[in-house]
Design a protein that fits this description.
It is a single chain. By secondary structure, this protein is of the alpha+beta class. It has three domains: 143 residues, no CATH class; 42 residues, no CATH class; 108 residues, no CATH class. Helix content is 34%, strand content 16%. The strands form four sheets. It has a four-stranded antiparallel β-sheet. The chain has a three-stranded mixed β-sheet with strand order 1-3-2, with helices on both faces. The chain has a three-stranded antiparallel β-sheet with strand order 4-5-6, with no helix packed on it. Strand 11 and strand 12 form a beta hairpin. The longest helix is centred in the N-terminal third of the chain and has 18 residues.
Length: 316
């Protein structure tokens, strides 16, 4: 059993990380023969009677469209595909180059002498071929759909997907993925200049990581002042703040808003409500969470956040 890496193994680990990170963010055109070879080997592992027909597309989105068109038509002819059926065939077989993180881990373990079953080693070798060859793949009985690699990728200093001002990943057909600091975000949050974003739009965001990126981009001070912030309590890096977001967040769904994130029709004015602000020094930003309207102290807010009626002895 290996319990500690030698200096040589530690250097190998760093070299392996750098090598496979470059593969994971490669924007070279796909190695189509290698990708098809790897997928054909997977079909043999899955005991499929014959190799599939390979369908190449310029992006994952194009793949999904082709999957819907080809497979649905094969089963249902010219009958239009119902909206409820659009994701029927969308189970991804492989993330291709974006599986580099886990494939490289096991290749490193193999390199330093970790023991694996022969069958697992053989399959790992197929996986590493696929990672080096292309992006996403979808495998079906008669067809295998494979996406080209991205055309451009933007990352921050921590090597997370990040592009403030546009998509952080663009494919050859123009399809883009939007991310800030490694968090998938809607296009309007990435593309809109920070000074043009209405702080009240935070009301439509329920995901904690997405909300954090909204706060980081728009700025906690701007949110505080634009929404009439009033600090009710402050302790150990936490703030309980009263904000008037101008609407009742519990009653407004995303479907009630237009493409820019604004609420359609007249704005509904709601009552100010408390929010817990939590500073995260490690990434130099603030988290923000709504708490019950009758919350008066940081301790009460944290008790609610931690799922208890007891006030915490230590603020966490």
């Amino acid at each position: 059993m290996i319990t500690e890496l030698t200096p040589k193994q530690e250097q190998l680990l760093e070299d392996t990380k750098k090598k496979w990170y470059k593969i994971g963010v490669s924007t070279d055109t796909a190695d189509r023969p290698l990708a098809e070879e790897a997928m054909a080997e997977f079909y043999q592992v899955m005991e499929q009677p014959k190799a599939p027909e390979f369908v190449w597309c310029d992006s994952p989105l194009s793949c999904l469209k082709e999957i819907n068109t080809i497979l649905w038509k094969k089963e249902h002819g010219d009958k239009p595909i119902p909206e409820a059926e659009l994701t029927k065939y969308h189970q991804v077989f492989s993330w291709g180059q974006f599986d580099a993180y886990w494939v490289s881990f096991y290749l490193f373990c193999l390199e330093i002498g970790c023991k694996f079953e022969k069958e697992h080693i053989e399959r790992l070798q197929i996986w590493q071929k696929l990672v080096r060859a292309c992006a996403w793949t979808w495998a079906f009985d008669t067809h295998c759909f494979i996406s080209e690699r991205p055309l451009k990728i933007w990352c921050n200093e921590e090597l997370d997907l990040h592009h403030d001002g546009g998509p952080s990943m663009v494919f050859r057909d123009g399809y883009g993925v939007f991310a800030l600091n490694g968090v998938r975000v809607p296009d309007w949050l990435a593309e809109t200049p920070e000074g043009e974003i209405d702080p009240k739009l935070i009301a439509r965001i329920s995901n904690a990581e997405l909300r954090r990126e909204f706060v980081r981009k728009v700025g906690v001070e701007r949110i505080y002042h634009k929404l009439g912030g009033e600090t009710l309590d402050e302790q150990d890096g936490y703030k309980l703040v009263l904000l008037d977001i101008g609407q009742n967040t519990d009653d407004v769904d995303d479907e009630d808003r237009d493409e820019d994130g604004d609420e359609d029709g007249d704005e509904r004015v709601g009552n100010p409500r408390p929010y817990l602000f939590m500073e995260n020094p490690s990434i130099q930003t603030w988290h923000m969470e709504g708490v019950p309207p009758d919350t008066k102290t940081v301790a009460e807010a944290l008790a609610f956040r931690n799922g208890t009626n007891d006030k915490p002895e230590v603020l966490t």
